[in-house]
Amino acid sequence: MEHLKVNGIEYEINADPNMPLLWVIRDILGLTGTKFGCGATQCGACTIHLNGEAVRSCITKLSRAAGQEVVTIEGLSINSDHLAPLKNYKMFQVANFHCYFVGDLSCLATRRLQNR
Ligand code: FES
To answer: Which of 25, 30, 37, 44 has the highest Cβ tally under 10 A?
Structure first.
């Protein structure tokens, strides 16, 4: 049993500690905004924030995330503190992302850069 905080909600996860965090997020928690693309750290479709750092959830094991804070694209909701600063960027005011992969990665990567 692993403890995770995802988008501000505490979870106890009963799964293989070697399970990629991507599948925990999608299949166990039902947060399907995080996508599977390449499975090899190349595309960034699976990007999440783990304690504020952008990581590829396709290669991050559940055991590595245990006890830490995860933010997914769902956590960057319009009313959250995480997304509010992005509203100032023209890109996010006019963009109509046709690709969820690009939209999710762009939001998470930009938010990470703001935190530096
Ligand atoms: S799925 Fe492509 S980097 Fe994780």
So the answer is: 25
Cα(112) to centroid(ligand 1), Å: 17
Can you give the pTM of this predicted structure? 0.74
Ligand 1 centroid to Cα of residue 68, in Å, is 21
d(CA 100, CA 9): 24
**Tens place of pLDDT per residue across the chain (116 aa):** 999 999 999 999 999 999 999 999 999 999 998 999 999 999 888 999 999 899 999 999 999 999 999 999 888 764 555 555 555 555 555 555 555 555 566 666 666 666 66
CA atoms of 59 and 22, how far apart (whole Å): 8
CA 46–ligand 1 middle distance (angstroms)? 5
The verdict on the CB of residue 43 being under 6 Å from ligand 1 is yes
Count of structural domains, the chain: 1
